[in-house]
Fold each of these.
Amino acid sequence: MLTPLPSIDRTQQVIDALSDFIESSRLQAGDRLPTERELMVALSVGRSTIREVVTHFQALGVVETRKGSGTYLLKPVSKATIHMPLSLDTAHLRDALLQTLEVRRGIECEAGMVAAKRRTSKDIAIIEEKLDEMERVHIAKGTSGPEDLAFHLAVYDATHNPLFKQLLEQMRGSFERFWTHPFDRQDFARRSFPFHRTLFNAIVAQDPEAARAETLKILDVVEEDIKEMSK
């Protein structure tokens, strides 16, 4: 049964509770999940928390929402399976960032190359919209963490391979450290700002090697700042 939760760590608790419910109810692919309202009442949480959890499951490719019909399971889920987040067991921010950066290089270089090959005109419009917003905020504030992340997510979407976004979702906690001003420095990785536009240009030109090169420029700046700012 779904039961009310204590008022801490709401999102993760709802993820766990919904996973347990799916597993214990033996729901299978194609089965409909409880409605948004039913989940809100059963778990005593707000609409925004339920929507955040559904978005999380959608990003992992385990549910889909059909307009006017509800949210349906695409594959069986439990707390021990695909949706569990990956994390690093390290108390040192410098080490955690450098280890995560090694994974980012592999994923983001490949994502940029695949996006350059497969992007559609709609993808280009979305990426450019995110890039324009990133540049606007960056110029106004000198930093643009959330907007920077949104740009990279749009590139992932342009690959038309859902595994890129699923991997990011599993590593979100580790990855998001890059966009939350590590070392309390607003200027972290600021020098990478111009390379986002050149990465976009490479994707527009459908030039995978150029996309890889521009992605590496971004991540090289990130690595330099990690090492310099953590001294």
Note: The CA atoms of residues 27 and 185 lie 46 Å apart.
Amino acid sequence: MIKLGLVGEGIAKSQSPDLHERLGASLGLPVRYDLVDSLGVADFDFPAAIQTLRTKGYQGTNVTFPFKEKAAQLADIRGEGVLRVGTANTLLFDAQGLRAENTDYTGFISAYRHSFGNQPAGEVLLIGAGGVGRAVACALGELAVSHLYILEHDTTRAQNLCRDLSAMGINASCITPEQAQQGLPNWQGVVNCTPIGHINHPGCPIDTSGLGSQHWVFDAVYIPAHTELLNAAAQAGAKTLSGVDLFVFQGVDAFRFFTADRLSADRIGPHVMPLRAYYIEQLVALPSQP
């Protein structure tokens, strides 16, 4: 039995336990995946929670809002994604110390390459510069993005991301909604990393009239799997990448880290597409389930 966890706030309905336990079962590796929810816990002590999991024999834990930055700071060893993004969503209890990885970063790269191969990302509109937006922006740096146009209502957050991307050698600039609408027909990619489109935040983050067959479009929202943005993109003839893909690929990447000493990547690989198909079916068929 391998014991894993997720530490975050308001995570009672997370799909992560199902993903890891389902993947483990398909590989003959029993997995127990527990939730450590800080919601309603006064003075929740994140470092103490992590140490408790380690003491109890957990292999590692995923980390989500609002602890991703703390997870990166707490680690003794930081993987490439953490060094680039500055946050972590996966902690591993290695013999060498606490190791942090960012599988939003690696997962987006895997999802993009699975759907689009070696197609350069090109010029991309990034909507939302929060945690996921930052991870995806850094990942696009590995996918031949030529310029990132950042649309974010929080000016300081947008400017900070632009500064950090520029330091990595990634061309980026902050833009207004009017500039996004004007430039969209000339760009290649559109990435939504805001909650807009989620069943709890319905709508579409941009005017989609400029979308066409020249575009590829990703929406980090995965409940529902077919958001207004992705539906509009499909109708315009654009290539689409669902948030379900990021959910699955980041989860699989975390599972690979958790089980590296027990399972080879070659054994895990054949189970990825059936897992993706399962979640696509579940999240399309049941769009009202948060």
Note: Confidence is low (pLDDT under 50) at residues 285-290.
Amino acid sequence: MGTTQLESVPEPKYWHLRTVLSEALDSEFAVGQVLPNERDLAARFGVARATLRQALEQLELEGRLQRRRGVGTTVAPPRVGVAVGSAELGWPGAPGDAWQAEESDRATAPAAVAELLGIAKDEPVHIVRRTRVTGGQPVAADLVHIPASSVPDLTAIDAPSGPARARAVLRELRRMEFEGQDRSVELGSARADDARALDRLPGAPVLVVTTRYFGGGGTAAVSLAIYRADTCRLTFGADGVEIHHTAERQAS
């Protein structure tokens, strides 16, 4: 059998270095230990600092390393298994929900979310901010987008702001009959506000879980949950994970 074009491409230098560094992490470093600075590491392994950074970024993406503010690059602990709610949990805020509601306000949703909800791009929605903590560590931040039609009696609630308002919005959402949900997962980078909520640096790798909740014959709410990719290993219920391929990826 002939050699394909892909098989003939040599292994990138950074990938070989990533393998060498991974072996060094296993044999020479303990969890939480700070790595030497980039200049010293580049000198030790005889590579350019640009190559070293690529290898370190790959190991961070794989959850082997963490970049910590004011500390540097440290060896990461094993990923924490985080269960992503199955259909049995129902609406956000239902009994057994691991999320903590923090705030709620009204604003226009991102265009992609408005499309998922089937509403006009300029139509305001209720946005509930939630966080999830595991083992005392923030592991995820969530924005639940809820159109006014899903919470028609919300105007009667006397909770102007804060967690009380957020919980009230979710309670009203639960009045609607739950019909199911679907989810998709993709890799992303933490924006500034996500990074603050998760105690990471902007641009850190995250897992973006988009969940559509169905009720009232349509999409009643959309959740955009951002999980720390460096510390989280997501587990799913029996309904599995929806996998999407963009046209560009299919072409490659």
Note: The mean pLDDT is 82.
